[in-house]
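Margin note: ligand = manganese (II) ion.
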Amino acid sequence: MSAGIDGRVLLARLRELGEVGRDARGRLVRLAASDADRAGRDLLARWLQGAGLEVAVDAIGNLFGIWQAGAGQPVMVGSHIDTVIDAGIYDGCYGVLAGLAVVEALRAEGLVPARPLAVAAFTNEEGVRFAPDMMGSLVHAGGLDLAEALASIGTDGTVLGEELRRIGYAGSMVPGTIRPAAYLELHVEQGPVLEQDAAAIGAVADLQGISWQRLRIEGRANHAGTTPMALRQDAGHAAARIVTGLRALAEGGTVATVGSLRLEPDAINVIPGAAVLTVDLRDPDEGRLAAAEAALSGLVAEVAAAEGVAITTERLARFQPVRFDPALVARIEQAAAKRGLPVRRMTSGAGHDAQMLARICPSAMIFVPSRDGISHNPAEYTAPEALVAGAEVLLDVVRGLLGADRGPG
Ligand code: GLV
Ligand code: MN
Ligand code: MN
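Resulting structure:
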């Protein structure tokens, strides 16, 4: 008889971690490699150690709790604990803490695993302070050079490697040392699909491609009262044309967002001399994503010519769509069905560490519903019973993988 997930402990930890990194305005801001991140990591490391796991940190700051058992490559579960600005408490933290809850449940039921089990919290999944996003898992999977990642300059001018050393999480382990037999990530959906379908569990079969760019527009600052409209090189107006033009080119499944826009000098009576904005383009279809990028280039050239401004673009991240391991996806569906939970296959709209781990091992994700599809917002919410149900599905799938005499897939 299995003891199951201790939902009370899981929810209490989610709430406790969710209080770490509140700013003066009460917002949850636990950006990668910040003081708040250090405090969150310290708390997580204590919990991992308390569960009897061996804690290891690699050179990009990825934090692991390892249950050394059996033989061979470990099964890995996890996600991230860094957050966006003014975040909810579930994004990422749920997958890490549910992984810990799975370890505790398996220990309580006396399972003797045939292989090790690792709980991972990857560095800088969000990519808000340092680009690219999913950085720790990308380095782990060998997709980004360690030195290049550590040299990443933050939005606040800091250097990631220095910040990791400062907070005490520049570890000694070589990234990628722990090569999993399989990786599973449990996450809140962050979108409306499961709620609309009245499904309790999402078996995530694929994940859309992501393109991030930063655009800098150079115009000419001038007097707002004396400069005739025809003689302006208004970087603010050029930025506005790109924002609205992007909306027009997001069609047929592409989503496009300008999430950051800064004008210089940012004064009421000065025509903006410069503008810096970010563009986030996503699509599950690589061809359509590439076409959207090409359309954006066309728009940039058109706006530059029409507005008399110079526009430079810098690529911050580019990841192709990912298909998860069909055998693992099927295991998730079977586990949910066995517990009588309505399950549906779906695409992930968000980026996740699982998309990087998929480069080196069979990987898949489990989603639970997000109320009103809200995420990257403090109103992010998933009902306690839905959180526990997701963790139980993770438990069942992990138990199956640990018991197997050979690797999954
Ligand atoms: C990560 O949260 C993303 O931007 O999808
Ligand atoms: Mn996340
Ligand atoms: Mn996120």
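The CA atoms of residues 180 and 190 lie 26 Å apart.
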